[in-house]
């Protein structure tokens, strides 16, 4: 099973992501937009693992969320991986109570290491992927300014009330995300 741990974006916030994507698509028509049903903020991607790991991952999420109350994050800026100027992925960075995101992500990483699971050693950057771009696309100064205008809008805060364990299951040439467990923040 392909596992990942993430924060699902509530339905009431998806319209603002749809609006961002629509504006983005007018600027970069070749961008492949992330399906709205797959919009999330990944805390840990584990890749292909034995199905039996599911219960241990649920325990890890419970430990990571211990004494973390619900909190809010707000979309703040547009960036890209590996960089904004030559992106393969465009994403929305968040601001707000991100200290809680860092704490949860670090706790998850520690617990995964304890189980001897491979952990991404790159610095955790809280982000929500909104599009993919192929073929060595380059963002020039004009396009960068237009992306900044999109991000300059004031966005509604996103209320985070749970952490979810997901399965990424093949669905034809794509993948669908199935929720395996939801751990509420209290």
Automatic annotation (TrEMBL):
<comment type="similarity">
    <text>Belongs to the 2H phosphoesterase superfamily. ThpR family.</text>
</comment>
<dbReference type="InterPro" id="IPR009097">
    <property type="entry name" value="Cyclic_Pdiesterase"/>
</dbReference>
<dbReference type="GO" id="GO:0008664">
    <property type="term" value="F:RNA 2',3'-cyclic 3'-phosphodiesterase activity"/>
</dbReference>
<comment type="function">
    <text>Hydrolyzes RNA 2',3'-cyclic phosphodiester to an RNA 2'-phosphomonoester.</text>
</comment>
<dbReference type="GO" id="GO:0004113">
    <property type="term" value="F:2',3'-cyclic-nucleotide 3'-phosphodiesterase activity"/>
</dbReference>
<dbReference type="Pfam" id="PF02834">
    <property type="entry name" value="LigT_PEase"/>
</dbReference>
<feature type="active site" description="Proton donor">
    <location>
        <position position="40"/>
    </location>
</feature>
<dbReference type="InterPro" id="IPR014051">
    <property type="entry name" value="Phosphoesterase_HXTX"/>
</dbReference>
<keyword id="KW-0378">Hydrolase</keyword>
<protein>
    <recommendedName>
        <fullName>RNA 2',3'-cyclic phosphodiesterase</fullName>
        <ecNumber>3.1.4.58</ecNumber>
    </recommendedName>
</protein>
<keyword id="KW-0436">Ligase</keyword>
<dbReference type="GO" id="GO:0016874">
    <property type="term" value="F:ligase activity"/>
</dbReference>
<feature type="active site" description="Proton acceptor">
    <location>
        <position position="127"/>
    </location>
</feature>
<feature type="short sequence motif" description="HXTX 1">
    <location>
        <begin position="40"/>
        <end position="43"/>
    </location>
</feature>
<feature type="domain" description="Phosphoesterase HXTX">
    <location>
        <begin position="8"/>
        <end position="91"/>
    </location>
</feature>
<dbReference type="InterPro" id="IPR004175">
    <property type="entry name" value="RNA_CPDase"/>
</dbReference>
